[in-house]
């Protein structure tokens, strides 16, 4: 079964750091890019992009409002991505969803992981 498994969410005080990880399993992949969205339940109607990275070139793109606090990296061998989140703010509190865009399979989503930042 093709799936994305996320880890690393949790609770932290403002100014702290968390690292999210996401690994694909259950098949072979022809990856276009991978990345992260987030959604605040009851506030956001849709998931909002946080960061993405192109698989071949390794080009990273971020949501403008993040101010350079987050860094996305990829691991070709494991078909995995990580999101290092520094100087976290209460406004970063959300459910974070990993995704993988595959040339044949389309978009695959992870199950989501909760990030809570307290002031």
Could you explain how this protein is built, in words?
- The structure is a single chain.
- With 119 residues, the protein is mostly beta strands.
- It has no helices and eleven strands.
- Strands 2, 4, 5, 6, 9, 10 and 11 form a seven-stranded mixed β-sheet that branches. It has a four-stranded antiparallel β-sheet with strand order 1-3-8-7, with no helix packed on it.
- It is globular and about 40 Å long.
- The termini are far apart.
- Characterize the quaternary organization of these chains: single chain
What is the beta-strand fraction?
over 45%
The topology string of helices and strands comes to EEEEEEEEEEE
Q: Major sheet, described briefly?
A: 7 strands, mixed
The dominant shape is globular
Summarize the structure.
The chain is mainly beta and 119 residues long.
Q: Any key phrases for this structure?
A:
7-stranded mixed β-sheet, 119 residues, single chain, mainly beta, globular
